[in-house]
Design brief:
17 strands, globular, six-stranded antiparallel barrel, alpha+beta
């Protein structure tokens, strides 16, 4: 009914100050000045060449306060980069003593109510609240997650993290879930994984996440390449790939066209337990991205028939796309 993931390896920071919103609009291509309090935004940090330093989720908690969660493998470099760009009217506070627990699945809302004694029924998707937990500590409950399921991420002090993990673990309808399962969930949703599907050479337009670029946005790092690509197009683009024959294609497998000519490489791949067939993502020339385009995926010298499909591979179950859960 629900699963819990320990994602405490992620980096958590508070960005505060009079120029906090302007700072975020400098280091990302997204809009933050008009972001409503409590709303979260998926975005990316961009470098001078328009590549992606990391992807992250940023939530506004006040006029001068934002909360950001960055990838664990990149957090040290991300924070160094962010501090290097800081204006005088903003500062970064690292939440080094905080854990992060993801609760995902159709009973997630019930788990929040029963374990944290908080009715999250009115928290919409990509929305967060600061609340006081039964232990007396302030925690952050965010209705989001990189799984496509209805669920939450809870940021809480390390001193009470084990206590609440054990409470969640003792729930009759919750099981602990590993990162391999989390990877298959995000792949089914077509979510890019940093260091695999996106990196410092990839632009948001190539990665097919140009929707994160705010309307009429200018003045952000890397804008020259990114805005040009959005206006004129790109030479390659990330696509979803469905295997039509038995087999599993992993990252690094060669993507070939119907004439057996190499045109790209898988950046993510695996077997979908839900769809019961192999799926993957990769970059192909922009003129070969049409849905239904036949492909061959070469796995250890064997070609497996495949085709380009629309992302995501399956519909999301987030609250904004389904009826609210009942307590």
């Amino acid at each position: 009914h629900a699963g819990i993931f320990d994602v405490s390896h992620m980096g958590q920071v508070m960005i505060e100050g009079q120029q906090a919103a302007q700072f975020l609009e400098r280091i990302t291509p997204s809009n933050f000045a008009d972001k409503k309090e409590g709303r979260a935004q998926y975005t990316v940090l961009t470098n001078e060449e328009g590549g992606i330093i990391d992807d992250l989720i940023v939530t506004r908690f006040g006029e001068k306060e934002f909360y950001a969660v960055v990838n664990g493998a990149c957090k040290e470099n991300d924070i160094v980069w962010m501090k290097k760009q800081l204006p005088g009217g903003a500062h970064i506070r690292e939440l080094k003593n905080h854990a992060l627990i993801a609760i995902q699945g159709r009973w997630a809302e019930r788990a929040i109510y029963e374990v944290f004694e908080y009715d999250a029924h009115d928290i919409g998707y990509m929305t967060a609240r600061k609340v006081i937990a039964p232990c007396g500590n302030e925690i952050i409950i965010s209705r989001l997650g990189y799984t496509g399921e209805d669920g939450f991420e809870v940021s809480l002090p390390n001193i009470v993290a084990a206590e609440y993990w054990e409470k969640l673990l003792s729930h009759s309808e919750i099981l602990p879930i590993g990162l391999a399962a989390r990877d298959s969930l995000r792949l089914e949703m077509g979510y890019p994984l940093y260091g695999h599907d996106i990196d410092e050479t990839t632009s948001p337009v190539e990665a097919d996440i140009a929707w994160i670029i705010g309307k009429n946005r200018t003045g952000f790092i890397g804008e020259e390449r990114i805005l040009k690509e959005r206006a004129e197009g790109v030479s390659r683009k990330r696509v979803g790939i469905k295997l039509l024959e038995k087999g599993v294609a992993r990252e690094g497998a060669e993507i070939r066209d119907a004439n057996d000519q190499p045109i790209g490489t898988l950046t993510s791949g695996g077997f979908s337990p839900i769809l019961e067939h192999g799926i993957g993502m990769g970059y192909v020339p922009a003129d070969k991205t049409k849905i239904g385009t036949p492909l061959l995926i070469n796995v250890r010298g064997r070609n497996i028939k495949a085709e380009i499909v629309q992302l995501p591979f399956m519909a999301a179950k987030t609250k904004s796309m389904k009826k609210p859960a009942k307590q």
